[in-house]
Amino acid sequence: MKSTIRLMMAALMLFAISAGQAQTLEQTLTKAFERFDTARNVGEMMAASSQFDLAASKWSNEYAANYYAAYSKAITSFLEPDKKRKDLLIDEANKYLDKVKAIDDKRDETYVLEALLINARIAVDGASRGMKYGGDFSKALEKAKSINPDNPRIYYLKANSLFYTPAAFGGGKKKAKEYYEKAKLLFAKEDKSSVLKPNWGAARCDDYLKQCDE
After folding, report:
1. Furthest-apart CA atoms within the chain: distance in Å
2. What's the pTM value of the predicted model, to 2 decimals?
3. How many Å apart are CA 119 and CA 124, to the nearest integer?
4. Which of 56, 83, 113, 168 could make a disulfide contact with 65, Cβ separation 3.0–4.6 Å?
5. Is 201 left (phi over 0), alpha (psi -120 to 50) or beta?
6. Which of 1.10.530, 1.25.40, 2.40.128, 2.60.40 is the CATH number of 105-214?
7. In whole angstroms, what is the distance from residue 107 CA to residue 103 CA?
8. Could you give the dihedral angle defined by the CA atoms of residues 168, 170, 171 and 173, in that order, rounded to the nearest 10 degrees?
9. Burial of 7 (0-12, 13-18, 19+ CB in 10 A)
10. Is there a contact between 205 and 156 (Cβ–Cβ < 8 Å)?
């Protein structure tokens, strides 16, 4: 815990220094995302996530700032070993999701983000939460699909759900692979010119495809 706090304090200091040099939202989020994306453990992920918190505080009415604050907490929750802390992270992420919806509830990424958070909630205890939240997860993805069927994260998240669902219950690697392959094709066409346009997931999609063939 002490090491995590030290990492977070160091990250905040570095963020404060870099923020003085990088004044735009795009520059700030790019630095924070690079730090988060290369984090090696939960402590480093939390430290990077705190940078998104500061960005969301500074640019409170900006879609991307709140989006990444929610995204980082959801992703961190998957690696956090303690179930109570997992739920606390997702609770924090949901507060940012509410802001994202208030800013723009017509964007496909809003519902991709919602599906990610629901999936994170299910992952805390799949046996007891799958039935409870599974319908909400599917609805969020369908809403995103109705807005933009070419968003690769729709199929990536669907594939993830199937990957971790036993074949006896309609999941398994074979079914997941179909969705990963579709996501991969769409990831290849995606605009990756700016962090302001979320484009996460491609590298992990490739990792899962390899696992499907093992």
Report:
1. 54
2. 0.89
3. 9
4. 56
5. left
6. 1.25.40
7. 10
8. 80
9. buried
10. yes
